[in-house]
Amino acid sequence: MTDSPLDVVCVGNAIVDVLAKVENSVITEHGMVKGTMALIDAEQAESLYASMPQGIETSGGSAGNTAAGLASLGARCAFIGKVRDDQLGDVFTDDIRAVGAEFATPSATDGPPTARCLILITPDAQRTMNTFLGASVNLGPEDIDERMIARAKVTYLEGYLWDRDEAKVAFHRAAEFAHSHNRMVSLSLSDPFCVDRHRNSFRTLVANHVDILFANEDEITSLYEVDDFEAALQHVSADCRIAALTRSEKGAVVVSGDEVHVVGAVPVSGVVDTTGAGDQFAAGFLCGFTRGDDLATCARIGAITAGEVIEHIGPRPQVNLAELVSARLAS
C-alpha cells in the first residue's frame, strides 16, 4: 500500500454473490419477503444454494459493489472487509483488486468461511437476497487502517455491517479517524429491515458521525418513523450535512440544509435486475462529490450509474462508467 491519495474508502461486508432467475412461486415457497434481504445461517445457505437454478457467481457486498463502480468511474478507491483464507476468500480478493480497488485487510485464519449472498431475481426484476455473513461479520476495530482512512476524502460505511457490536466499534473508529484527519464520513442505510433492527443507534450515528447519508424512500421514512417522504426530509436535513435519497423511478432528492435538488431517473431500455442500484448511485454521487461537482451533478451521475446496472443481471457495471457518464452529461 502506498501513501497516494484516495477518493473513497469503502467499509463493508466482503461477500460473494450468487444470482439466479426464479419464478415468484419460489419466493412464496421459501417464505421470503420479496425485494428484501434476510440473514440466514450456514445450514440454510447450503440448502438454498442446492435448490437454486444455475446462476452467476461474482464478488459482491454492497460496499464492494460501490467500490467497483467508483473504480469504473476512474475514482481512486479502496475496500476494507473481512474474508476467510479459503477459496471464496481468494475469489473475492482477486475480484476486488481486479476492478482497481485497493484491498489489504488480512484474511481470517480460523472461524466461519467467506460470506455469500444468494440472490433470487423474479420476472419483475425485484431481487430477494439471502445472506450468510460468515467471516465478514468478524470485521473489527483492529481492521480499520487509520493510514488508509486518512488518505481518503470520504469513508463510506455499509449499513448492512451494523449488526454486531464489533462492527459498531469499527464504524465509530473509522468515523473518528476520518474526522480527526478532516475527512468526511458517508453511510448507506442499506435496507429497511436493517433500519428497523437498529433505528435508534442508526439515528445516533447519523446525527453525530455522518456527513453524507444515502437511503431510499422506505429506509429514510423508517429511520424517522414517518409515513411521509417530505417529513423525513425535514428530519434528515437537521441531522447531517448532505442526504442523497433515491426514489426508484421517481429519481432522487438531495438535501443539504436549505438546498434541495430533485433529479429524475434516467431512461433505460428495460429493468432486468435492481440488484446494486443503490450501490451504484452512491458510487456515481461520491465520484462527482470527490472531484468537486455540485450536488445536482453528483445526483445526475448517480442516476446514470444506477440506470446502467438495472439493465442487466448483476450488481456491478458492465460498461466503462467513466465513458458512459461523460457521454450522458454532454448530451
Describe this structure in words.
The structure is a single chain. This protein is of the alpha/beta class. The chain has a single domain, classed as Ribokinase (UDP-N-acetylmuramoyl-L-alanine:D-glutamate ligase, 3-Layer(aba) Sandwich). Helices cover 41% and strands 22% of the residues. The protein has 12 helices and 14 strands. It has helices at 24-29, 42-51, 62-72, 87-98, 146-151, 165-180, 192-209, 217-223, 229-239, 277-290, 295-309, 321-330, and strands at 6-11, 15-21, 37-39, 56-60, 77-80, 102-103, 115-121, 127-132, 152-158, 184-188, 212-216, 242-246, 252-256, 259-263. The protein has a 9-stranded mixed beta sheet with strand order 6-5-1-9-10-11-12-13-14, sandwiched between helices. A 5-stranded mixed beta sheet has the order 3-8-7-2-4. A hairpin with a 2-residue loop joins β13 and β14. α7 (192-209) packs across α8 (217-223), α8 packs across α9 (229-239) and α10 (277-290) packs antiparallel against α11 (295-309). The longest helix is centred in the middle third of the chain and has 18 residues, at 192-209. It is globular. The N and C termini lie far apart (39 Å). The model has no long low-confidence stretch (mean pLDDT 93).
How are the secondary structure elements laid out?
Blueprint: E1 6-11, E2 15-21, H1 24-29, E3 37-39, H2 42-51, E4 56-60, H3 62-72, E5 77-80, H4 87-98, E6 102-103, E7 115-121, E8 127-132, H5 146-151, E9 152-158, H6 165-180, E10 184-188, H7 192-209, E11 212-216, H8 217-223, H9 229-239, E12 242-246, E13 252-256, E14 259-263, H10 277-290, H11 295-309, H12 321-330
Parallel strand pairs: 1-5, 1-9, 2-7, 3-8, 5-6, 9-10, 10-11, 11-12
Antiparallel strand pairs: 2-4, 7-8, 12-13, 13-14
